[in-house]
Amino acid sequence: MITFTIAADSSISPAQICAEIFDVDRWSGFKGYGPLPGIAKVTMKSPANSIIGTEFYVENTDGSKHKETVQSLNAGKCLIMKMSDFSSPIKNIATHFIERWDFADTNSGYRINRTLELYPKNAFAALPLWLISWLLKKAIARHTHQIANPQQA
Hints:
Layout: E1 2-10, H1 14-21, E2 39-45, E3 55-60, E4 65-74, E5 78-84, E6 94-106, E7 109-120, H2 123-148
Antiparallel strand pairs: 1-7, 2-3, 3-4, 4-5, 5-6, 6-7
Protein name: SRPBCC family protein
Organism: Chamaesiphon polymorphus CCALA 037
């Protein structure tokens, strides 16, 4: 497993951030980094009477696709999503990613800790996945700070 965490201070409440995550029109704000594509389009499918299990079908700017599924939501505290069903080339090197958003109150607002766990398919896939994780970390950092402080974006 490859893991990294991005932290940001925010004036935006966890409830507002979660509402933005569930607004598929906002996902195109993820611009990628270098050769790592941004998000072009997202559709959402929600199960009846539950946020858990909500699926986001993501199409990236390079035409690649994946699915993100809400695994857990503790309102205002934590949101966990699983990324899976990757198209090439990621499907060849990763089984899934876990993205975790943790929120905490601070004296001046809120603290966001956004953690990604990337699971390589095998030992040979770990190196290319590690290289991709470096780009993904840069993209996630930019995106997290953009969400946390939209007035500075």
